Structure prediction request, 193 residues.
Amino acid sequence: MKSQLNFILGEDMSEAVTSKPLQMSWDEIVVNTLKDNDVRLIAYVPDKVLAPLISRLYADDFFTVVNSAQEEEALGIVAGAWMGGMRGIVLMQTSGFATLPNALASLAIPYQIPVLMMISERGTLGDFQQGQVVVCRTMMPILNCMNIESHKLTALGDVEFVVGQTIKQAVKTQAPAALILSPLLTARKGEAQ
Prediction:
């Protein structure tokens, strides 16, 4: 095969064709997908898992990035932006989500505001922090009870499709939606969360 490519393309080109393409990271894919869906406002509460994504968002002039003191504040900022014609997303970790049911039930759901949430899943797959573990076990039941669409991101190849389609569905149905970042996607080898 390689000798045929050398004959057809020449020596230099055959290496480019047969070499493995560069693979984007999950956070690069998320940034591109947010841009493709005109999600410009990012309200977040700092989190180690989300740090690479937050850094990329700050570095890109397309986005307005707001560091919120609490998840409820971030949700209010994104809800207000929607009412003003701008799409946004709230970035948080699992324990931060535990503070949001009241804000979701009293603002986003009854007023049909498509608040997008990206939640780094903590308290699972070897996480030893008891508070994170308990909250992780309650997150999915709470999302289900509130009838909030949610999708867990576990594989790099699914990130663009799942994030993009979740944004589109939230906007079309005017309903909140959650994207849950699994440690299967975000954890670096040899690194504990």
Summary: The longest strand covers residues 87-93. Residues 43 and 73 are 9 Å apart (CA to CA). The mean pLDDT is 89. The longest helix spans residues 130-145.
